[in-house]
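INFO batch 0412 | record 1 of 1 | parsing
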Amino acid sequence: MTPIEILALIFAIGILVKIIAVLVNPKSNLKLAEMMLEGTGVLRIIYLILLAITGYYLLLELNIIQISAVMLFALILVALAFIPYNKHVLEIRREHAKSRKKFLKQNWLQLVIGAAIAIWTLVAILA
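INFO prediction complete | emitting tokens
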């Protein structure tokens, strides 16, 4: 099995386990979320490590243009999932709009990574 296949297998199993868990016991997902979100600093480090590992293996098989196209697909899927929660999303957006400094403090890492991927993609396409 290739590294990409292993990543895809982890994804598929993870999604199916989550769906089954939520259908069987909706509160099980809540307990896991509460546990994970207690320490956001540690969680951020864990996600950065996972991002680096998956990014490394993806880049062995795919180029940045292909990865960006898949990211667009995933972004649309996530946006679709948030539609039922539009009021909560708007509350968060309004909160972010109140203070640029607070927004940047909370989101700088995602913004830097997103900008780097976007610039890398543009350079790859336009080169």
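INFO post-check: Residues 1-61 form one domain.
INFO record closed
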